[in-house]
């Protein structure tokens, strides 16, 4: 292929199996400039046709707050006079989180990438960003012990120490942890209870609003989740240490199966990278979740960097077809004078299909990110932005055969487990290093807000 060629319409799809391409649309001609960029990993498949474009107010049967799209101008229960920013709170959208009785902001604070700030010079900015997000009305905070081996929870705990407890709802997780590959997942009743108590200590709280089973598709089988993990969490709920129980993961149908089979009431599901611009598979399970009164939490609206200006990291599990299409979509939006990151955030925020979208609010490069995000979503989507959503989906993502990486992370995890067992069997027993885990079982690290990876210079 020449170094720089022009392809009309969606013809660039024919070249998606050619790795290391840079795709940039040419607005005036409707064509695409394609050139090579060194070092992009190769895979060749591509995803599912997306239905639905811009969220509207026409799905009132799907959600209790749909008639107003979550916006009423009223103050939520988390509003604290003298602390909360009333002007901003009145402009934010709040929706019922299933049948929990919690009314959550349609945009939520994600803790997936916070561990990088712990103990650093930027820690104060991170703490202030969390506090400012809550003060301005983002009342749902999400974290987990897996994020930085507890550093995310510890940092959030520092931030919450000076925040009125009634001003926020917090959700954490149990079941996934930092450490060797063998220690990464433990869904036993004993470990999840221990983990929960450790989380309370790091957060500096006596209870949390939601405890969730973390990435349950990695369990040896779902029977463990249903018969051991969830009953253990239910005991915590009955003891008054947690108000509600949730489950999280990447695979929508697996989440629905657990909801269907569990004798313990599941109050929320949390799914990442399966609703937004390039993939809407989460919508397949929403109708039944609504019928059962289960809250729906969306996460990673930018696809773990796929639709960010800087693009994804090398470890991202998406196939090359999807990566190239995402690069082209971001470039196309820029040519139109629009910021696709902001449009995606607005798109998810305005959707009646989900209750809230978890996104990162702290960034070293953008210290005012939390304010930028809030200021972005409180402004209505313009007609130009709505049309751009339709254009991007139609031009870049509907032609793809595959827009997800379901199954790959789990397969690679169990491959790594077998590899470690083989090492032990030949008397070379040792925990897999972070470098080995990253090389052989990458996709284990896929996470809702950001990916937490322990990179070694030896890789």
Automatic annotation (TrEMBL):
Entry protein name: NADP-dependent oxidoreductase domain-containing protein
Any single Gene Ontology cellular-component annotation: cytosol
Residue span(s) of domain NADP-dependent oxidoreductase: 107-391
Start-end of Polar residues biased regions: 41-71
Organism of provenance: Ramazzottius varieornatus
Disordered as annotated region, ranges: 28-73
PANTHER family: GH17980P-RELATED (PTHR42686)
GO molecular function, one term: L-galactose dehydrogenase activity
Cross-referenced Pfam families: Aldo_ket_red (PF00248)
Superkingdom in the source lineage: Eukaryota
SUPFAM superfamilies membership: NAD(P)-linked oxidoreductase (SSF51430)
InterPro entries: AKR, LGALDH-like, NAD(P)_OxRdtase_dom_sf, NADP_OxRdtase_dom
């Amino acid at each position: 292929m020449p170094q720089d060629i022009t392809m009309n319409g969606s013809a660039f799809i024919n070249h998606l199996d050619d790795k290391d391409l840079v795709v940039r649309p040419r607005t005036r001609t409707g064509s695409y400039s394609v050139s090579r960029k060194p070092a992009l990993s190769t895979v060749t498949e591509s995803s599912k046709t997306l239905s639905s474009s811009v969220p509207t107010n026409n799905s009132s049967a799907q959600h209790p707050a749909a008639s107003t799209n979550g916006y009423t101008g009223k103050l939520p229960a988390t509003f604290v006079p003298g602390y909360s920013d009333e002007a901003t709170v009145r402009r934010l959208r709040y929706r019922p989180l299933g049948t929990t009785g919690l009314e959550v902001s349609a945009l939520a604070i994600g803790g997936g990438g916070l561990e990088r700030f712990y103990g650093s010079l930027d820690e104060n900015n991170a703490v202030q960003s969390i506090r400012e997000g809550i003060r301005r009305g983002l009342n749902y905070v999400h974290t987990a012990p897996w994020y930085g081996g507890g550093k995310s929870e510890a940092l959030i705990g520092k931030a919450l120490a000076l925040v009125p407890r009634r001003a926020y709802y917090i959700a954490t997780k149990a079941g996934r942890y930092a450490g060797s590959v063998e220690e990464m997942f433990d869904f036993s009743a004993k470990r999840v209870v221990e983990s929960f108590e450790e989380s309370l200590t790091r957060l500096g709280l006596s209870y949390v609003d939601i405890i969730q089973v973390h990435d349950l598709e990695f369990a040896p089988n779902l029977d463990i989740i249903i018969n051991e993990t969830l009953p253990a969490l239910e005991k915590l709920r009955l003891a008054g240490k947690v108000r509600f129980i949730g489950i999280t993961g990447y695979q929508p149908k697996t989440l629905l199966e657990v909801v269907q089979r569990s004798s313990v009431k599941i109050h929320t599901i949390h799914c990442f990278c399966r609703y937004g611009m390039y993939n809407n598979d989460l919508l397949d399970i929403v109708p039944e979740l609504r019928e059962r009164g289960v809250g729906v939490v969306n996460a990673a609206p930018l696809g773990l960097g796929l639709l960010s200006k800087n693009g994804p990291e090398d470890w991202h599990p998406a196939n090359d077809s999807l990566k190239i299409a995402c690069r082209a979509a971001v470039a196309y939006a820029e040519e139109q004078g629009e910021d696709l990151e902001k449009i995606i955030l607005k798109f998810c925020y305005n959707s009646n299909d989900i209750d809230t979208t978890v996104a990162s609010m702290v960034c070293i490069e953008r210290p005012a990110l939390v304010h930028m995000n809030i200021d972005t979503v409180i402004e209505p989507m313009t007609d130009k932005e709505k049309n751009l959503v339709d254009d991007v989906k139609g031009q870049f993502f509907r032609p793809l055969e595959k827009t997800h990486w379901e199954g790959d992370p789990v397969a690679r995890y169990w491959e790594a487990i077998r590899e470690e067992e083989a090492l032990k069997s030949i008397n070379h027993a040792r925990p897999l290093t972070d470098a080995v885990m990253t090389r052989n079982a990458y996709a284990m690290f896929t996470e809702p807000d950001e990916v937490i990876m322990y990179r070694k210079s030896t890789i």
